[in-house]
Amino acid sequence: MMNNLSIIVIIVSAHLLTLTTVQAQSASAFQPGKEWPDNHGIHINAHGGGVLWHNGNYYWFGEHKVAGEKGNRAYVGVHCYTSKDLHHWVDSGIVLAVDGAQNSPIAPGAIIERPKVIYNKKNKQFIMWFHLELKDQGYKAALCGVATSKKITGPYVFHHAERPDKGTLPISYKPDTNKGDSILLRDKEKGQMSRDMNLFVDEDNSAYLIYTSEENRTVHISQLSDDYLSTRGRFARVFPDRFMEAAAIFKANGKYFFVASGCTGWAPNAARSAVATHIFGPWQELGNPCEGPDSALTFHGQSTFVLPVMGTKNTFIFMADKWNPKNAIDGRYLWLPVVFKANKFKVMWSESWELEDQAKQKSINNE
Ligand code: DGJ
Protein backbone atom coordinates (compact mmCIF):
# COMPACT_ATOMS: atom_id res chain seq x y z
CA MET A 1 0.00 0.00 0.00
CA MET A 2 1.37 3.42 -0.90
CA ASN A 3 1.04 6.14 1.63
CA ASN A 4 0.22 9.74 0.74
CA LEU A 5 3.87 10.78 0.86
CA SER A 6 4.88 8.16 -1.74
CA ILE A 7 2.09 9.32 -4.04
CA ILE A 8 3.24 12.95 -3.73
CA VAL A 9 6.86 11.91 -4.42
CA ILE A 10 5.77 9.99 -7.53
CA ILE A 11 3.68 12.91 -8.85
CA VAL A 12 6.45 15.46 -8.23
CA SER A 13 9.08 13.20 -9.86
CA ALA A 14 6.87 12.63 -12.91
CA HIS A 15 6.35 16.38 -13.19
CA LEU A 16 10.09 17.06 -12.93
CA LEU A 17 10.76 14.40 -15.57
CA THR A 18 8.31 16.12 -17.94
CA LEU A 19 9.91 19.48 -17.31
CA THR A 20 13.40 18.10 -17.94
CA THR A 21 12.24 16.46 -21.17
CA VAL A 22 10.68 19.73 -22.38
CA GLN A 23 13.87 21.63 -21.51
CA ALA A 24 16.04 19.00 -23.18
CA GLN A 25 13.91 19.24 -26.34
CA SER A 26 14.02 23.01 -26.49
CA ALA A 27 17.80 23.03 -25.97
CA SER A 28 18.37 21.55 -29.41
CA ALA A 29 15.08 22.17 -31.22
CA PHE A 30 14.53 24.97 -33.73
CA GLN A 31 11.38 26.87 -32.82
CA PRO A 32 10.52 29.02 -35.82
CA GLY A 33 9.03 32.41 -34.98
CA LYS A 34 9.88 32.27 -31.26
CA GLU A 35 12.36 34.60 -29.59
CA TRP A 36 15.87 33.25 -30.09
CA PRO A 37 18.20 34.28 -27.26
CA ASP A 38 21.98 34.56 -27.72
CA ASN A 39 24.53 33.71 -25.01
CA HIS A 40 23.48 36.84 -23.08
CA GLY A 41 19.79 35.92 -23.23
CA ILE A 42 19.11 38.70 -25.77
CA HIS A 43 17.05 37.99 -28.91
CA ILE A 44 19.46 37.56 -31.84
CA ASN A 45 19.73 40.72 -33.93
CA ALA A 46 20.87 39.49 -37.37
CA HIS A 47 18.02 40.02 -39.81
CA GLY A 48 18.13 39.38 -43.55
CA GLY A 49 21.15 37.27 -42.72
CA GLY A 50 23.28 34.48 -44.03
CA VAL A 51 25.59 31.92 -42.46
CA LEU A 52 29.20 31.11 -43.34
CA TRP A 53 30.90 27.98 -42.04
CA HIS A 54 34.62 28.39 -41.41
CA ASN A 55 37.12 26.22 -39.53
CA GLY A 56 34.54 24.37 -37.44
CA ASN A 57 32.26 27.28 -36.59
CA TYR A 58 29.17 28.76 -38.14
CA TYR A 59 29.03 32.57 -38.40
CA TRP A 60 25.64 34.25 -38.76
CA PHE A 61 25.80 37.76 -40.23
CA GLY A 62 22.73 39.97 -40.40
CA GLU A 63 21.25 43.43 -40.15
CA HIS A 64 21.32 44.91 -36.66
CA LYS A 65 17.86 46.51 -36.36
CA VAL A 66 16.82 49.07 -33.76
CA ALA A 67 13.46 49.46 -32.03
CA GLY A 68 10.46 51.12 -33.63
CA GLU A 69 9.51 51.99 -37.20
CA LYS A 70 12.85 53.65 -38.04
CA GLY A 71 14.49 50.35 -37.06
CA ASN A 72 14.88 49.08 -40.60
CA ARG A 73 17.44 51.78 -41.35
CA ALA A 74 21.06 51.17 -40.33
CA TYR A 75 22.03 52.99 -37.15
CA VAL A 76 24.48 50.40 -35.88
CA GLY A 77 25.74 48.08 -38.63
CA VAL A 78 26.10 44.39 -39.37
CA HIS A 79 25.95 42.00 -36.43
CA CYS A 80 27.69 38.61 -36.22
CA TYR A 81 27.02 35.57 -34.01
CA THR A 82 29.10 32.40 -33.74
CA SER A 83 27.96 28.82 -33.14
CA LYS A 84 29.22 25.26 -33.33
CA ASP A 85 25.79 23.59 -33.37
CA LEU A 86 23.46 26.13 -35.08
CA HIS A 87 21.36 26.38 -31.89
CA HIS A 88 23.53 28.20 -29.39
CA TRP A 89 24.84 31.50 -30.69
CA VAL A 90 27.52 33.62 -29.09
CA ASP A 91 27.39 37.34 -29.76
CA SER A 92 30.51 38.28 -31.75
CA GLY A 93 29.50 41.93 -31.94
CA ILE A 94 29.10 44.49 -34.70
CA VAL A 95 31.51 43.54 -37.45
CA LEU A 96 30.75 46.37 -39.90
CA ALA A 97 29.84 49.61 -38.18
CA VAL A 98 28.00 52.52 -39.77
CA ASP A 99 30.33 55.44 -40.40
CA GLY A 100 29.58 58.94 -39.11
CA ALA A 101 32.20 60.60 -41.35
CA GLN A 102 30.84 63.18 -43.79
CA ASN A 103 29.64 61.72 -47.10
CA SER A 104 30.17 58.13 -46.01
CA PRO A 105 27.87 55.85 -48.06
CA ILE A 106 27.28 53.84 -44.88
CA ALA A 107 26.28 56.84 -42.76
CA PRO A 108 23.88 56.21 -39.86
CA GLY A 109 20.39 56.24 -41.39
CA ALA A 110 21.51 54.59 -44.65
CA ILE A 111 19.90 51.26 -45.55
CA ILE A 112 22.15 48.21 -45.17
CA GLU A 113 20.22 45.05 -45.96
CA ARG A 114 20.84 41.33 -46.44
CA PRO A 115 24.60 41.24 -45.69
CA LYS A 116 26.35 38.06 -46.79
CA VAL A 117 29.98 37.06 -46.22
CA ILE A 118 32.13 34.69 -48.29
CA TYR A 119 35.77 33.66 -47.96
CA ASN A 120 38.27 34.20 -50.73
CA LYS A 121 40.81 31.38 -50.43
CA LYS A 122 43.38 33.03 -52.73
CA ASN A 123 43.54 36.33 -50.85
CA LYS A 124 42.62 34.84 -47.46
CA GLN A 125 40.06 37.62 -47.09
CA PHE A 126 36.48 37.65 -45.93
CA ILE A 127 34.29 39.64 -48.31
CA MET A 128 30.94 41.05 -47.30
CA TRP A 129 28.35 42.19 -49.83
CA PHE A 130 25.14 43.95 -48.87
CA HIS A 131 22.29 45.93 -50.36
CA LEU A 132 23.08 49.60 -49.82
CA GLU A 133 20.75 52.57 -50.08
CA LEU A 134 22.08 56.05 -49.37
CA LYS A 135 20.73 58.03 -46.44
CA ASP A 136 17.48 59.92 -47.12
CA GLN A 137 17.15 58.58 -50.67
CA GLY A 138 14.70 55.75 -50.11
CA TYR A 139 15.42 52.76 -52.36
CA LYS A 140 16.53 54.88 -55.33
CA ALA A 141 20.30 54.29 -55.36
CA ALA A 142 19.96 50.46 -55.64
CA LEU A 143 23.62 49.78 -54.88
CA CYS A 144 25.73 46.92 -53.63
CA GLY A 145 28.13 47.67 -50.80
CA VAL A 146 31.34 45.68 -50.39
CA ALA A 147 33.49 45.45 -47.23
CA THR A 148 36.49 43.27 -46.37
CA SER A 149 38.31 41.86 -43.38
CA LYS A 150 41.22 39.49 -42.75
CA LYS A 151 39.36 38.17 -39.70
CA ILE A 152 35.94 36.59 -40.03
CA THR A 153 34.55 38.48 -37.05
CA GLY A 154 35.85 41.77 -38.39
CA PRO A 155 36.17 44.63 -38.15
CA TYR A 156 35.15 44.85 -41.82
CA VAL A 157 36.37 47.92 -43.69
CA PHE A 158 34.05 49.47 -46.26
CA HIS A 159 35.63 48.94 -49.69
CA HIS A 160 33.27 50.52 -52.21
CA ALA A 161 29.69 50.71 -53.48
CA GLU A 162 28.71 49.74 -57.01
CA ARG A 163 25.94 49.24 -59.46
CA PRO A 164 26.83 45.82 -60.88
CA ASP A 165 27.61 44.87 -64.46
CA LYS A 166 28.35 48.35 -65.75
CA GLY A 167 28.80 48.66 -69.51
CA THR A 168 27.85 45.10 -70.46
CA LEU A 169 24.81 43.14 -71.55
CA PRO A 170 23.73 39.73 -70.27
CA ILE A 171 25.03 36.53 -71.77
CA SER A 172 22.97 35.33 -74.76
CA TYR A 173 21.34 38.76 -74.96
CA LYS A 174 18.85 39.27 -77.76
CA PRO A 175 17.05 42.62 -78.12
CA ASP A 176 13.44 42.36 -76.98
CA THR A 177 11.07 43.58 -79.67
CA ASN A 178 8.42 44.20 -76.96
CA LYS A 179 10.85 46.51 -75.09
CA GLY A 180 10.88 44.31 -71.98
CA ASP A 181 14.58 45.15 -71.80
CA SER A 182 14.20 48.94 -71.68
CA ILE A 183 15.32 49.30 -68.02
CA LEU A 184 18.26 46.97 -68.63
CA LEU A 185 19.36 49.14 -71.56
CA ARG A 186 18.64 52.39 -69.68
CA ASP A 187 21.04 51.29 -66.91
CA LYS A 188 23.74 49.74 -69.06
CA GLU A 189 26.24 52.59 -68.70
CA LYS A 190 25.76 53.40 -65.00
CA GLY A 191 25.34 49.76 -63.94
CA GLN A 192 22.27 47.68 -63.15
CA MET A 193 19.99 48.38 -60.18
CA SER A 194 20.65 45.97 -57.31
CA ARG A 195 18.23 45.69 -54.40
CA ASP A 196 17.70 42.38 -52.55
CA MET A 197 20.85 40.36 -53.03
CA ASN A 198 22.62 37.18 -52.08
CA LEU A 199 25.90 35.38 -52.75
CA PHE A 200 26.63 31.82 -53.79
CA VAL A 201 30.04 30.13 -54.02
CA ASP A 202 30.22 27.11 -56.31
CA GLU A 203 32.34 24.00 -55.82
CA ASP A 204 35.03 25.41 -58.16
CA ASN A 205 35.19 28.57 -55.98
CA SER A 206 33.54 30.76 -58.59
CA ALA A 207 31.27 33.17 -56.75
CA TYR A 208 28.01 34.73 -57.87
CA LEU A 209 25.94 37.72 -56.89
CA ILE A 210 22.21 37.17 -57.21
CA TYR A 211 20.33 40.45 -57.29
CA THR A 212 16.89 41.86 -57.90
CA SER A 213 17.23 44.38 -60.71
CA GLU A 214 15.38 46.44 -63.33
CA GLU A 215 13.01 48.15 -60.81
CA ASN A 216 12.43 44.74 -59.17
CA ARG A 217 11.13 43.18 -62.39
CA THR A 218 13.96 40.73 -63.07
CA VAL A 219 16.68 38.82 -61.24
CA HIS A 220 20.29 38.90 -62.41
CA ILE A 221 22.91 36.30 -61.59
CA SER A 222 26.37 37.71 -62.00
CA GLN A 223 29.79 36.11 -61.65
CA LEU A 224 32.19 37.91 -59.30
CA SER A 225 35.81 38.71 -60.09
CA ASP A 226 38.42 36.24 -58.79
CA ASP A 227 39.01 38.40 -55.71
CA TYR A 228 35.22 38.52 -55.09
CA LEU A 229 35.41 42.32 -54.87
CA SER A 230 33.38 43.24 -57.94
CA THR A 231 31.25 41.91 -60.75
CA ARG A 232 32.99 41.19 -64.03
CA GLY A 233 30.19 41.87 -66.50
CA ARG A 234 29.30 38.21 -67.00
CA PHE A 235 25.69 37.91 -65.99
CA ALA A 236 22.41 36.21 -66.82
CA ARG A 237 19.00 37.78 -66.78
CA VAL A 238 16.58 35.27 -65.21
CA PHE A 239 12.83 35.21 -64.46
CA PRO A 240 12.10 38.38 -66.51
CA ASP A 241 9.03 40.31 -65.29
CA ARG A 242 8.42 37.86 -62.43
CA PHE A 243 9.07 40.51 -59.71
CA MET A 244 11.08 38.33 -57.34
CA GLU A 245 13.19 39.35 -54.37
CA ALA A 246 14.83 37.71 -51.34
CA ALA A 247 16.54 35.21 -53.65
CA ALA A 248 18.86 32.44 -52.44
CA ILE A 249 20.65 29.68 -54.33
CA PHE A 250 21.91 26.32 -53.08
CA LYS A 251 23.29 23.24 -54.81
CA ALA A 252 22.39 19.60 -54.24
CA ASN A 253 23.28 16.53 -56.31
CA GLY A 254 24.84 18.73 -59.00
CA LYS A 255 21.68 20.83 -59.46
CA TYR A 256 21.17 24.47 -58.58
CA PHE A 257 18.06 25.29 -56.60
CA PHE A 258 16.59 28.77 -56.25
CA VAL A 259 14.14 30.19 -53.76
CA ALA A 260 12.73 33.72 -53.64
CA SER A 261 9.65 35.71 -52.73
CA GLY A 262 7.37 38.02 -54.68
CA CYS A 263 7.66 41.80 -54.15
CA THR A 264 5.26 43.05 -51.47
CA GLY A 265 7.51 45.20 -49.26
CA TRP A 266 7.63 43.92 -45.66
CA ALA A 267 4.41 41.91 -46.10
CA PRO A 268 4.69 38.18 -46.75
CA ASN A 269 3.68 36.45 -49.98
CA ALA A 270 4.08 33.02 -51.56
CA ALA A 271 7.63 31.83 -52.09
CA ARG A 272 8.88 30.73 -55.51
CA SER A 273 11.33 27.99 -56.37
CA ALA A 274 13.25 26.87 -59.43
CA VAL A 275 15.91 24.42 -60.59
CA ALA A 276 18.72 24.55 -63.17
CA THR A 277 21.66 22.45 -64.25
CA HIS A 278 23.75 25.56 -64.90
CA ILE A 279 23.74 28.57 -62.62
CA PHE A 280 23.08 30.91 -65.57
CA GLY A 281 20.05 28.84 -66.53
CA PRO A 282 17.78 27.99 -68.16
CA TRP A 283 15.87 27.91 -64.88
CA GLN A 284 12.68 25.92 -64.58
CA GLU A 285 10.17 27.29 -62.08
CA LEU A 286 8.84 24.72 -59.58
CA GLY A 287 6.17 26.74 -57.77
CA ASN A 288 5.77 27.51 -54.09
CA PRO A 289 7.97 25.08 -52.14
CA CYS A 290 6.27 25.68 -48.77
CA GLU A 291 3.99 23.08 -47.19
CA GLY A 292 1.89 23.49 -44.07
CA PRO A 293 -0.34 26.15 -42.48
CA ASP A 294 -0.05 29.55 -44.19
CA SER A 295 2.29 28.12 -46.81
CA ALA A 296 0.78 30.63 -49.28
CA LEU A 297 2.40 33.33 -47.12
CA THR A 298 5.71 31.52 -46.56
CA PHE A 299 4.50 31.01 -42.96
CA HIS A 300 4.53 34.86 -42.67
CA GLY A 301 8.21 35.04 -43.54
CA GLN A 302 10.52 35.88 -46.43
CA SER A 303 13.57 33.90 -47.52
CA THR A 304 17.07 35.14 -46.77
CA PHE A 305 19.43 32.14 -47.15
CA VAL A 306 19.59 28.39 -47.55
CA LEU A 307 22.15 26.98 -45.17
CA PRO A 308 24.06 23.77 -45.97
CA VAL A 309 24.62 21.76 -42.77
CA MET A 310 28.27 20.75 -42.59
CA GLY A 311 29.24 17.09 -42.41
CA THR A 312 25.99 15.95 -44.03
CA LYS A 313 24.97 15.16 -47.57
CA ASN A 314 22.19 17.44 -48.77
CA THR A 315 20.90 18.65 -45.42
CA PHE A 316 19.79 22.25 -45.82
CA ILE A 317 17.98 24.74 -43.63
CA PHE A 318 15.69 27.32 -45.18
CA MET A 319 16.25 30.62 -43.38
CA ALA A 320 13.57 33.31 -43.49
CA ASP A 321 12.72 36.53 -41.69
CA LYS A 322 9.38 37.22 -40.12
CA TRP A 323 9.57 41.01 -40.39
CA ASN A 324 8.09 43.36 -37.84
CA PRO A 325 8.12 46.76 -39.55
CA LYS A 326 6.51 48.50 -36.52
CA ASN A 327 9.28 47.27 -34.22
CA ALA A 328 12.05 46.04 -36.48
CA ILE A 329 14.29 44.75 -33.68
CA ASP A 330 11.60 42.19 -32.81
CA GLY A 331 11.71 40.52 -36.23
CA ARG A 332 11.73 36.74 -35.81
CA TYR A 333 13.55 33.95 -37.60
CA LEU A 334 11.96 31.01 -39.38
CA TRP A 335 14.49 28.24 -39.84
CA LEU A 336 12.82 25.25 -41.45
CA PRO A 337 13.89 21.91 -42.94
CA VAL A 338 14.38 21.53 -46.67
CA VAL A 339 13.13 18.17 -47.96
CA PHE A 340 13.74 16.85 -51.48
CA LYS A 341 10.76 15.24 -53.18
CA ALA A 342 10.52 14.16 -56.81
CA ASN A 343 13.19 16.52 -58.21
CA LYS A 344 11.78 19.44 -56.26
CA PHE A 345 12.52 20.73 -52.82
CA LYS A 346 9.95 21.49 -50.16
CA VAL A 347 10.08 23.69 -47.09
CA MET A 348 8.03 22.02 -44.39
CA TRP A 349 6.39 23.92 -41.55
CA SER A 350 7.17 22.68 -38.07
CA GLU A 351 6.63 24.40 -34.72
CA SER A 352 9.61 22.64 -33.27
CA TRP A 353 12.10 20.39 -35.01
CA GLU A 354 15.60 19.01 -34.73
CA LEU A 355 18.27 18.32 -37.31
CA GLU A 356 18.04 14.60 -36.45
CA ASP A 357 14.35 14.59 -37.54
CA GLN A 358 15.41 16.03 -40.87
CA ALA A 359 18.03 13.32 -41.33
CA LYS A 360 15.30 10.68 -40.77
CA GLN A 361 13.00 12.43 -43.23
CA LYS A 362 15.75 12.40 -45.85
CA SER A 363 16.33 8.69 -45.52
CA ILE A 364 12.57 8.07 -45.91
CA ASN A 365 12.73 9.97 -49.20
CA ASN A 366 15.91 8.14 -50.12
CA GLU A 367 17.74 11.40 -50.89
C1 DGJ B 1 11.49 43.39 -48.95
C2 DGJ B 1 12.96 43.10 -48.98
O1 DGJ B 1 13.13 41.76 -49.14
C3 DGJ B 1 13.59 43.62 -47.71
O2 DGJ B 1 14.93 43.26 -47.67
C4 DGJ B 1 13.37 45.09 -47.72
O3 DGJ B 1 14.06 45.65 -48.78
C5 DGJ B 1 11.89 45.41 -47.81
N1 DGJ B 1 11.32 44.79 -48.97
C6 DGJ B 1 11.65 46.88 -47.87
O4 DGJ B 1 10.30 47.14 -48.14
Automatic annotation (TrEMBL):
Entry annotated with the keyword Hydrolase: yes
CDD domains the record matches: GH43_CtGH43-like (cd18825)
Gene Ontology MF term list: hydrolase activity
Source taxon at top rank: Bacteria
Annotated signal sequence range: 1-24
Cited Gene3D superfamilies: Glycosyl hydrolase domain, family 43
Keywords: Glycosidase, Hydrolase, Signal
Family indicated by similarity: Belongs to the glycosyl hydrolase 43 family.
Name of the protein: Glycoside hydrolase family 43 protein
Organism in which the protein naturally occurs: Mucilaginibacter sabulilitoris
Organism taxonomic ancestry: Bacteria, Pseudomonadati, Bacteroidota, Sphingobacteriia, Sphingobacteriales
